[in-house]
Request: fold
Amino acid sequence: MKKVILTGVRPSGNLTLGNYLGAIKNFVDRQEQYDSYIFIADLHAITSPKDPQKLKEAVYNCVAMYLACGVDPKKTIVFKQSDVLEHGTLGFIMTFQTKMGELSRMTQFKLKSQQQTKEGVDTGLFVYPTLMVADILLYNTSIVPVGKDQQQHVELTRDLAERFNKRYGQTFTMPDVYVAPVGNKILNLQNPLEKMNKSDSGDNKGTIFLMDDIEVAKKKIMSAKTDNLAHVHFDEENQPGISNLMSILSKITDEDFESIEKRYEGKGYGEFKKEVAEVVAKTLAEIQAKFKQFNNKDMLDKILSNGAIDAQKVASQTLKRAANALGLN
Ligand code: TRP
Reply:
């Protein structure tokens, strides 16, 4: 039996190079080795209220984008979280295994709840990690490739799985987080102390979107903030900008840092940036060409409905096991 790999991404029309390199690519590179699941976390998306029509569009967009990034529905079960009702039920069950203190400690909650303080903080935002716990446990997942910011949620999943198994008997598989050694946190090109985010405060100059115009994307790389040390060297502390560009290059081409450093010995940043810009441009061009091909709602509906059927088969068994363990059926 193959082990299970699973990841989810919130639907957003604007996936970034950071999403691609930090999470999606790690998944795509492994989809043959594992039993693979990827889903659109649309229930998670409602933690920040959106125009319902826009949310629907964003879901289609996101699936087409996954496919464009190389997710292959013949190898991977592709589905939408809200199509598989077991997510909500197990998520609810898991809230009873979770302490308020555990959830208040979540870094993402701390950050996002600060943005909601005007009208009060939604309880959904607070319990959101327990839904993510359910997402992972439902599929007997062994490995969860995510960006660094999600690592804490996977650690919570491990704690809760262990707690449940201890209390009620072996029910859930223990998942491991997979944070890639390179490229797990692509940084904002203009402010390399911040993550490259979909919502970029600085005019989007620091964020490369996968759908960016190729020339615009190249310019963003060429004008990325660096330093005045004038050598291409991986040192996240003292040269965060250059290190970030090296991560981008290395993640796309698989060339290690040492070899990049060697090639650029005695050379300037301009030349180095040019190569990074070319490599990124090529990646975006490939993704964008495929996106056009996959941007077809009938086809996407078919993929999602088939995916939901396959996913539900597994999810319903796990939920039954958990309900049985609790004495619910
Ligand atoms: N919370 C993740 C994010 O914001 C998305 C997500 C939801 C997820 N459920 C998941 C990722 C399960 C991995 C596994 O990016």
Observations:
- Residues 41 and 81 are 5 Å apart (CA to CA).
- The longest strand covers residues 4-9.
- Strands lie at 4-9, 35-40, 76-80, 143-145, 176-178.
